[in-house]
Amino acid sequence: MNAIHINPTDHASQAQGTSAAHGGIRAHGSPGRGLLGATVGFFIGFAAVSLFGPTVAYLQRATAMSAAAAGLLISIPNLTGSLLRIPFSAMVDGDGGRRPFLILLSVSLIGVIGIATIIAQPAERLRDLFPWLLVFGALGGCGSATFSVGISQTSYWFGRQRQGRALGAYAGLGNLAPGIFAFLLSTLTIPLLGLPGSYVAWAVLLAAGTLAYLALGRNAPYFQYRAAGMRDEDARSQAIADGQELFPAGSMAQTLARSASVWQTWALVVVYFTTFGGFMALTGWFPKYWQGMFGVGAAAAGSLAALYAILASLARVAGGAVADRFGGERTSGVGLVVLAAGAGGMVLAPTPGLAVAAMLAMAVSMGVVNAAVFKLVPQAVPDAVGGAAGWVGGLGAFGGFVIPNVLAAFLAGGAAGYGRGFLVFVVLAAVSIAAVAAVGRSFRLPGAAVKEA
Questions:
Q1: 229-237 long-range CB contacts below 8 Å, 24 or more apart?
Q2: Are strands 21-22 and 25-26 parallel, antiparallel or unpaired?
Q3: Which residues contact 400 (CB under 8 A, 6 or more apart)?
């Protein structure tokens, strides 16, 4: 999102975004409704992170798929969900967000319906349909790309002073979806409805959520006025009267190119790859981990995975406030040290109890660092914040696709590989600590530009 701020006049700021008219044209909605609509759309779309994690053990037994194939199945929704974040976020600057939201949720619905149809087939046919399961899994994963769309859409509704809390609530509450859906699949819908019926129920919920976004989701006033045919300058003037402060500026291609030329952008991509990509990866991986490592039942494994995902999401909400108080660099550094310790605990844990404690340490640290990263973005790349946020959010989420496949490779040595696989997070955390330190030094150098988030 490439954007500029315009400070509204005192009389205009009291209008706060609902129904000022210009030539008979009215903008509908409010910042609160804009936030609610975006959060509902993101929540229902981001559940796709758990699309196969709670069910892969059932599918593995039915099809005798390899560990590598299971890892690919868990991760495939995250492939499309991460790669589509950048172009669909760019669409918001021209559209306001409503259209890309509906496109992504609709495609995700097609994917979930396709999965339900395939899983209803007999086991002997299911083996031959595995490629189609990947195709529909990729389509289903499109819903998780709503994250970047909602970030931009929400930002246009809120002024600079209110964005931190609004975006923290948006991201934290939306991030709860994978944990909740994993819990429902494992403990409720599969026992009651069976595997095909569970995905039918998912499709119904996704359709209901899409309709809810259709009813609640609103573009910020500027985009409504432009869609109604106003000239750009008139639309901006009237949106300022409604209280809007943030407007698109220039081309997304320009800010993406500018931010890509700055090494700090790529350092922060590494950090977000570790923590947010890792969050997405482990939300899908933990049900398989608990069953394969300690022989935990499917319902209990799903509940533990849900606990991890929900705690990480709540920690992200709190992490924004912590980063505001102590700074993004310090918060990220401490969080990454805790992440490395938690991952080391997962490698060494001899009992389920110790593994749970290590998992919870990873959850809290990942959630806090996920929030702190976006405190660092405007400090490290002040001249291309929108482009940097696009690269960090999009490519960082790519870890959700890569990491499960790396974890699956450790299973070649047997069940002990479930624990050894967490060495990946020890290494990624160490690299990320170095990246945060380097970024922090760069904007403390004499003459470096610093722009507070």
A1: 230/22, 230/23, 230/25, 234/22, 236/6
A2: antiparallel
A3: 49, 75, 78, 81, 82, 276, 277, 279, 280, 281, 284
Backbone angles phi, psi at 224, to 5 degrees: -65, -45
When pLDDT is averaged across residues 86-105 and rounded to a whole number, the result is: 88
Q: Is residue 247 within a helix (H) or strand (E), and if so which, with residue range?
A: strand 246-248
395 token code pair: 């490519």
Q: Indicate the burial class of 284 (C-beta count within 10 angstroms; 0-12, 13-18, 19 or more).
A: buried
How far is the C-alpha of 442 from the C-alpha of 391, rounded, in Å? 19
Q: Is the dihedral of CA 418, 419, 423, 425 positive or negative?
A: positive
The predicted pLDDT at position 11 comes to: 35
The residue extents of the domains of the chain are 30-217+251-444
Cβ-based neighbours of 213, under 8 Å, separated by 6 or more: 37, 40, 41, 44, 101, 102, 105
- The span from the CA of 34 to the CA of 37, in Å, is 5
- Quote the DSSP letter at residue 264: H
What are the φ and ψ backbone dihedral angles of 202, each rounded to 5 degrees? -60, -45
Q: Look up residue 355 and give its two tokens.
A: 């593994």
Cα dist. 47→52, 173, 205, 306 in Å? 11, 12, 11, 11
- Return the structure tokens found at 274: 């570790």
- The residue among 119, 96, 158, 403 whose CA lies nearest residue 276 is 403
Report residue 385's pLDDT band, with 50, 70 and 90 as the boundaries: low
Helix locations, 295-445, DSSP H: 298-326, 328-348, 352-380, 385-397, 399-409, 417-420, 423-444
Residues 396, 374 contacting (CB under 8 angstroms): no
Write out the two tokens for 339. 């992440």
Class of CATH domain 30-217+251-444: mainly alpha
Contact 97, 152 (CB under 8 A): yes
In this structure, the number of other CB atoms found within 10 A of the CB of residue 228 comes to: 14
Which residues are CB-contacts of 76 (< 8 A; sequence separation ≥ 6)? 52, 134, 137, 138, 141, 401
* pLDDT cut 90: percent of the chain above it: 53
Report the pLDDT value the prediction gives residue 327, as an integer from 0 to 100.
87
Q: Read off the pLDDT of residues 158-176 as tens digits, 9 standing for 90 and up.
A: 876 676 678 778 888 888 8
